[in-house]
From TrEMBL:
PANTHER family per record: HTH-TYPE TRANSCRIPTIONAL REGULATOR XRE, TRACRIPTIONAL REGULATORY PROTEIN-RELATED-RELATED
InterPro entries in the cross-refs: Cro/C1-type_HTH, Lambda_DNA-bd_dom_sf
Species, as recorded: uncultured Anaerotruncus sp
Any matching Pfam family: HTH_3
Lineage of source species: Bacteria, Bacillati, Bacillota, Clostridia, Eubacteriales
Protein name as annotated: Transcriptional repressor DicA
Coiled coil regions, renumbered to chain: none
Source species, domain of life: Bacteria
GO molecular function: DNA binding
Record keywords, A-Z: DNA-binding
Database matches in SUPFAM superfamilies: lambda repressor-like DNA-binding domains
Domain HTH cro/C1-type per the UniProt entry, residue ranges: 8-62
Length: 364
């Protein structure tokens, strides 16, 4: 009752109405409205709709009723935002996302997915200031999600939030957030695969084992690339090259080049170029373009016997947003300066520009 009273009073103040004006609009006495807002009485249920109309809100909002969406509904809503972003650009898509947050402010899964959607919005920002505003909005959603969510949704929000903090150079907050989490060096659920196998549930055991292998491979490549970046900061080009090549080896052996390999080859091209190894650097740059052309076709991954139980889904919206930036990513790499005047370098840029122009053709 008290929450309803507060909501009526807050909505009335927001509309700039007096208690008497609201009473006239609804057809009740001034004292009735006063009693509603004090929590002494509740309005008759038949009056909720007229009150909501007068206050430019909804009965659900007055009653604090927040419907929860299922995962399929959340996926459809976020996909619609992505499609709008591709068709009409940043502002319409961002406005639609904000409207969804207003409509479902306590839906933790929607907050998580829209918070993650901020990464797509950033790609369409005109300048750094706008990109920062979008990331801060994404942080707000993820922070709210973390407060109300539990289990995997809360953990996913923490992972995304630390990435956003890092992009916003809020490193101290990212470190603090992660340090507050309990150490979890071993996931008990990893014991499920061998247990399922002992029960004769081989299909389920194989699926879990493959998911675990995929995540381990992804982390191995990611960590090797991080170590290579650290070597680069220490101006140890040979060490950087060795680590990048080992990361490429892991990706190649396990068939994960599409999606992971292109960034590795771009980094390797820059590393080789700074050492004066022009031809090998151009080879790596051309390999980057080869893999970029195949992305996001991840169907090949499922042909390997160690990943054939995992469902890989391509992201056409991500293709339409990211491929136009492939050429820019190369042009901004100062390490590639020694290659700029080479015909093979120019051919790579031309190929990447063509990919960017073609990327949106199949998007509805």
């Amino acid at each position: 009752m008290q929450q309803l009273a507060k909501n009526i009073a807050a909505a009335r103040h927001k509309c700039g109405l007096t208690q008497g004006q609201l009473a006239d609009l609804v057809g009740v006495s001034h004292s009735a409205v006063s009693k509603w807002e004090m929590g002494a009485t509740c309005p008759d249920i038949a009056l909720l709709a007229p009150i909501a109309r007068a206050l430019h809100t909804t009965p659900d909002a007055l009653l604090n009723f927040r419907p929860q969406l299922d995962s399929g509904q959340v996926q459809s809503l976020v996909a619609a935002c992505s499609a709008l972003l591709v068709r009409e650009g940043l502002c319409p898509a961002w406005d639609q996302a904000k409207a969804l947050v207003h409509q479902y402010p306590a839906d933790s899964l929607l907050l998580l997915k829209l918070g993650s959607f901020a990464q797509q919005l950033v790609l369409c920002c005109q300048d750094e200031k706008q990109a920062k505003q979008v990331l801060q909005w994404g942080c707000e959603l993820l922070e709210r999600c973390r407060e109300i969510a539990q289990g995997e949704t809360a953990q996913a929000a923490i992972v995304a939030l630390t990435a956003y903090y890092s992009m916003l150079e809020r490193t101290d907050e990212a470190v603090y957030l992660l340090e507050q989490q309990p150490p979890n060096s071993f996931d008990p659920r990893r014991q499920l695969a061998p247990l399922y196998a002992r029960q004769g549930k081989d299909d389920r055991a194989a699926e879990l084992a493959q998911q675990d292998l995929y995540m381990c491979a992804f982390m191995a490549v990611t960590d090797l690339m991080l170590l290579a970046n650290i070597a680069q900061k220490g101006q140890d080009a040979r060490r950087q090259q060795f680590l990048l090549q080992r990361a490429i080896d892991v990706a190649q052996v396990l068939g994960l080049q599409v999606g992971l390999g292109q960034n590795l080859f771009l980094a390797l091209a820059g590393c080789l170029a700074t050492q004066g190894e022009v031809e090998p650097a151009l080879d790596a740059l051309e390999r980057y373009a080869d893999l970029a052309a195949r992305w996001p076709d991840v169907g090949e991954i499922g042909t390997y016997p160690w990943f054939d139980r995992i469902k890989m889904t391509a992201q056409p919206m991500g293709e339409a947003l990211l491929k136009p930036h492939l050429c820019q990513m190369v042009e901004e790499q100062t390490q590639l300066d020694p290659l700029r005047r080479h015909p093979r370098y120019a051919a790579v840029l031309q190929r990447l520009r063509a990919l960017g122009e073609q990327s949106g053709e199949n998007i509805p």
